[in-house]
């Protein structure tokens, strides 16, 4: 059984004060919820506050990125040991906004993935095709090569905690969600490639989340697909009641 994850990616929104105000409103709305793991991913400046405010609750704070080394002359970066030191046990890796605007590559995602695993941090690796790739019938090829590059030299044992997020770039922030069938088809391709890289059992156990214009109105149809094990929510996770509704309708 794969326990679903509902994660809210706050991107570059919310100061520490706004993050804490969100949690004040949100935590009571989901406090009895045990069916899914619930994550929020604030910016680095808010992460410590969020981690502290969620101690003893069913919500966890997740970093939006990290470096693969423990320390060094890398301005602007945060290391896995630094995340662990503030109690952070989840990280997003290879988000499309990192890939599109900050030259993130799957070679680096692979290094980060290994570092996360070595530090006991659950990695949520993002993959997903551009609209042009979908239109050129290159979705399968793109997803397979992304998964293969991210999972290079990762053993089945290391991939135990792996989570993948399928986020088609054409669905992010556009309001046009992938249909449940289209998403499920992509998840099947991803699961197949995981099986290729790390074995069938790993593929069966890996949670694959869908992301891209998830809202309270479309979450339950998406979650009805056997292949879809949760959601990575952007814009709709910024408002406590909206995100709580997504958690409840999932
Ligand atoms: O990028 C996303 C989550 O990581 C999706 O963003 P939206 O839900 O705003 O489309």
Automatic annotation (TrEMBL):
It is found in: Cytoplasm. GO terms for molecular function: triose-phosphate isomerase activity. This is Triosephosphate isomerase. It holds the Pfam family TIM. InterPro entries: Aldolase_TIM, TIM_sf, TrioseP_Isoase_bac/euk, Triosephosphate_isomerase, Triosephosphate_isomerase_AS. Its main location: cytoplasm. Belongs to the triosephosphate isomerase family. Pathway: Carbohydrate biosynthesis; gluconeogenesis; Carbohydrate degradation; glycolysis; D-glyceraldehyde 3-phosphate from glycerone phosphate: step 1/1. It comes from Granulicella mallensis (strain ATCC BAA-1857 / DSM 23137 / MP5ACTX8). Substrate binds at residues 9-11, 173, 213, 234-235. It catalyses: D-glyceraldehyde 3-phosphate = dihydroxyacetone phosphate. It comes from the Bacteria. Keywords: Cytoplasm, Gluconeogenesis, Glycolysis, Isomerase. GO terms for biological process: gluconeogenesis; glyceraldehyde-3-phosphate biosynthetic process; glycerol catabolic process; glycolytic process. NCBIfam families: tim. The active site is at residues 95, 167. Involved in the gluconeogenesis. Catalyzes stereospecifically the conversion of dihydroxyacetone phosphate (DHAP) to D-glyceraldehyde-3-phosphate (G3P). Its EC number is 5.3.1.1. One of its GO terms (cellular component) is cytosol. Homodimer.
């Amino acid at each position: 059984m794969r326990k679903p994850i509902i994660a809210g990616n706050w991107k570059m929104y919310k100061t520490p004060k706004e993050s804490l105000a969100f949690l004040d409103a949100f935590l009571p709305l989901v406090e009895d919820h045990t069916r899914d793991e619930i994550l929020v991913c604030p910016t680095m400046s808010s992460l410590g506050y969020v981690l502290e405010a969620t101690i003893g609750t069913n919500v966890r704070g997740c970093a939006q990125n990290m470096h693969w080394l423990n320390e060094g002359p890398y301005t602007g970066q945060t290391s896995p040991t630094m995340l662990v030191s503030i109690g952070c046990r989840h990280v997003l890796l290879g988000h499309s906004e990192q890939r599109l605007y900050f030259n993130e590559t799957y070679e680096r995602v692979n290094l980060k993935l290994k570092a996360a695993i070595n530090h006991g941090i659950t990695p949520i690796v993002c993959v997903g095709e551009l609209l042009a790739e979908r239109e050129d019938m290159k979705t399968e090829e793109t997803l397979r090569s992304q998964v293969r590059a991210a999972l290079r030299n990762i053993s089945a044992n290391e991939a135990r905690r792996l989570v993948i997020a399928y986020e088609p770039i054409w669905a992010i922030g556009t309001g046009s969600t992938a249909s449940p069938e289209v998403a499920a088809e992509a998840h099947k391709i991803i699961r197949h490639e995981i099986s290729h890289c790390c074995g069938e059992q790993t593929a069966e156990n890996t949670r694959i989340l869908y992301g891209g214009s998830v809202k309270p109105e479309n979450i339950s149809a998406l979650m009805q697909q056997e292949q879809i094990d949760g959601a990575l929510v952007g814009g709709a996770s910024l408002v406590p009641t909206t995100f709580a509704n997504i958690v409840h309708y999932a």
